[in-house]
Sequence to fold (188 residues):
Amino acid sequence: MGLKIEEIKKMIIESIPDAEISIEDLAGDNNHYSATIKSKQFHGKSKIEQHKLVYDSLKGKMGGDLHALALKTIEG
Amino acid sequence: MDQNTNKEIKEKIENNDVCLFMKGTPEVPQCGFSLAIANLLKHLEVNFKGIDVLASTEIRQGVKEFSNWPTIPQLYIKGEFVGGCDIVKEMYEDGNLQKKLEEKKISFKKIN
Fold:
């Protein structure tokens, strides 16, 4: 189980094309990541809505294949 | 999600001003993210109810659907979904959590 950094980035970019993404593998197990994502799409949205945009881009993998993705979203 | 689970989740949120769906209990959290929020609330001396989702598969899955949020922990304050671990931590750091508690008239310890 787990997802590679490149796979996560690809999925996010597909939904949020202007996203600037930096991801760190916290435990070296392809399963615990920390991501910072910057996008213009976050403008005017609450933190909850911003995080949901990212979760939606991962199409149900969050909480499933992907156990932990600490998220920080920044309005670009 | 069946109706009973939906009702049970709703009741827990309505009956507890500060309600944290978490893995484990506030005394013995079973996951680092749940631990982080529980500790933060304890630090602020907020009186909160921890709901251990590991005790019920229905609630564990149901609350994700209920909140339309894929992960646990989930924090509710006076019926409003506030967020998961990342958002709550960020709100604490920039003072927005304290502001929210004040707005919702929840007592907490003010630390300067």
About this structure: Residues 87 and 97 of chain B are 9 Å apart (CA to CA). The domain at 3-103 of chain B is CATH 3.40.30.10 (Glutaredoxin). The interface with chain A takes residues 33, 64, 68-72, 81, 83-87, 90-91 of chain B (CB under 8 Å). Chain B has five helices and four strands.
